[in-house]
Amino acid sequence: MPSSAPGFRQLEMFVYLADVPEEFGPAHLVSRKHTVDLAAVPDRFLRPGLESKSRFHDGSGSPHLYGAEVSAAGPAGTVVAFEVLVPEVPVDGMASGATGL
After folding, report:
1. Is 83 in a helix, a strand, or coil?
2. Which of 55, 66, 78, 93 is the most exposed place for a label (fewest CB within 10 A)?
3. 53 contacts: CB under 8 Å, gap ≥ 6
4. Which residues fall within 8 angstroms of residue 96, CB to CB, at 6 or more apart?
5. Can you tell which superkingdom this protein's organism belongs to (predicted)?
6. What DSSP character marks residue 32?
């Protein structure tokens, strides 16, 4: 589980062995400055027209996040490094820091 505690932070990376152009659907990342106040659940904000019954998905759309996305498209050899943080708030009665994923 990702944690914001200094001793347990995680760095995740994608290393492209082949070109990953935009038309291949690369990951899109959003800076922490745009997500710091979001709750742990839902953890996915679906684009308009997509539906899900999962409590982890929000189908209402979040255009403010879409406008902040940065594409991770790049040529072979690209390294995309990012940190995944989980808000340390109780979820459904679980201990602080737990996410229920």
Report:
1. coil
2. 93
3. none
4. 88, 89, 90
5. Bacteria
6. H
